């Protein structure tokens, strides 16, 4: 592939002298023919596919053409640029060549022994099987994995011990906040991290900070800044994952404010599902449609979007109201026949807000 790309580029470079030596009239006529032919092909072909050599050649020629004429000369759209950037980021973080095999399967002899012991001891649970063998003894989990290859989906607690999970979570929601990191790759493939917080009760989102090096000291300072500016009277619990950035000093800052820090189980992102949800929203509605230039750019657009998120974006969990409306009360119905609705563009038109004209 590399040799073919070098050959294609070299061949096109050698054709430049012949083009430069032609007279201006013939070159202009040929350019008009090629431009018209290109327009016809664009109408007939829904999508043009470029090889790596084509992209390299177009990138080299783009330096000779004024930027304001790129839209007429090249068929590359903003969506194409975003797709190329996503592909470049995925290629950089692709570790498939270094992938290692997973845990080896259980030996057939061990499986046969476990099943035989289970059949011979029907009244004894798996936890008692290792005690019936000589060392080295199989682990308890091995017996359960062999006897129950598929997890049971019909388990249920007895009625007296069954709890209404939704009722419990709703009652505690106003006292819970959650934090998690959002990572973004800039246009030059530099990875940035944003610390995002979500209030479970009001669904308000907060940006605690943006950095390229999220150390424990940085997270601790971000926590202090949040507690100094926010009203934490009703907050009792903070949910976070087990990332190394959340140190004991980070937990101590919230503990001093009367907030108990709860660590989610290892490798269990669903335990912090609400915060994962807002991170997914930030990606789908904002970051997937923009190329981030630097740390200041990311901080600015996240702050502006969270302002829209808290004051204008409806949420299903709070009856299609935004957090500000849920706290102040739902607005009164308005007869649209007697009012005009104005549109306000946010972040260059990526997001639209609508309000009654004053």
Q: TL;DR of this structure?
A:
The protein is α/β, with parallel strands linked by helices. It contains 13 helices and seven strands. The protein folds into three domains: 2-76, no CATH class; 108-147; 168-328, Nucleotidyltransferase, domain 5.
Describe what this molecule looks like in 3D.
The protein has helices spanning 2-20, 24-44, 52-62, 70-73, 78-92, 108-120, 140-147, 165-172, 216-229, 248-256, 273-285, 295-311, 323-328, and strands spanning 176-185, 191-199, 205-211, 237-240, 260-263, 341-346, 351-356. It has 3 domains: 2-76, no CATH class; 108-147; 168-328, 2-Layer Sandwich (Nucleotidyltransferase, domain 5). By secondary structure, it is α/β, with parallel strands linked by helices. The protein is built from 13 helices and 7 strands. It is 44% helix and 13% strand. It starts with a helix and ends with a strand. It has a 5-stranded mixed β-sheet, sandwiched between helices. The protein has a two-stranded antiparallel sheet with strand order 6-7. The longest helix is centred in the first third of the chain and has 21 residues, at 24-44. The model is unreliable at 130-140 and 151-161 (pLDDT under 50). Residues 169-331 form the Integrase catalytic domain. InterPro entries: Integrase_cat-core (IPR001584), RNaseH-like_sf (IPR012337), RNaseH_sf (IPR036397). One of its GO terms (biological process) is DNA integration. This is Integrase catalytic domain-containing protein. One of its GO terms (molecular function) is nucleic acid binding.
């Amino acid at each position: 592939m590399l040799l073919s790309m070098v050959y294609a580029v070299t061949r096109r470079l050698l054709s430049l002298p012949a083009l430069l030596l032609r007279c201006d009239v013939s070159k202009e006529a040929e350019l008009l023919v090629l431009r018209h032919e290109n327009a016809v092909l664009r109408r007939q072909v829904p999508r043009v596919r470029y090889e790596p050599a084509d992209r390299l050649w177009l990138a080299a020629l783009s330096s000779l053409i004024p930027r304001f004429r790129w839209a007429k000369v090249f068929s590359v759209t903003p969506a194409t640029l975003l797709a190329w950037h996503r592909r470049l980021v995925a290629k950089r973080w692709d570790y498939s060549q270094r992938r290692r095999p997973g845990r080896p399967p259980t030996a057939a002899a061990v499986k046969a022994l476990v099943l035989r012991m289970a059949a011979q001891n029907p009244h004894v649970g798996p936890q008692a099987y290792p005690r019936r063998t000589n060392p080295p003894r199989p682990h308890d989990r091995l017996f359960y994995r062999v006897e129950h290859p598929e997890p049971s989906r019909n388990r249920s607690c007895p009625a007296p011990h069954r709890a209404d999970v939704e009722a419990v979570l709703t009652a505690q929601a106003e006292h819970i906040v959650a934090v998690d990191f959002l990572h973004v790759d800039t246009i030059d493939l530099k990875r940035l991290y944003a610390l995002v917080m979500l209030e479970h009760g009001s669904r308000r989102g907060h940006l605690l900070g943006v950095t390229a090096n999220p150390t424990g000291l940085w997270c601790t300072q971000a926590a202090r800044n949040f507690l100094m500016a926010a009203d934490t009277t009703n907050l009792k619990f903070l949910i976070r994952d087990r990332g190394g950035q959340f140190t004991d000093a980070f937990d101590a800052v919230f503990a001093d404010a009367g907030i108990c820090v709860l660590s989610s189980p290892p490798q269990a992102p669903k335990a912090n599902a609400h915060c994962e949800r807002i991170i997914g929203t930030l990606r789908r509605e904002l970051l997937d449609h923009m190329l981030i230039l630097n740390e200041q750019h990311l901080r600015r657009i996240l702050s502006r979007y969270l302002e829209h998120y808290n004051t204008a974006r409806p949420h299903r969990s709070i009856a299609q109201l935004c957090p500000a409306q849920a706290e102040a009360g739902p607005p009164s119905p308005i007869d649209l026949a007697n009012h005009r609705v104005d549109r306000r563009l946010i972040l260059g038109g990526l997001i639209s807000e609508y309000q009654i004209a004053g």
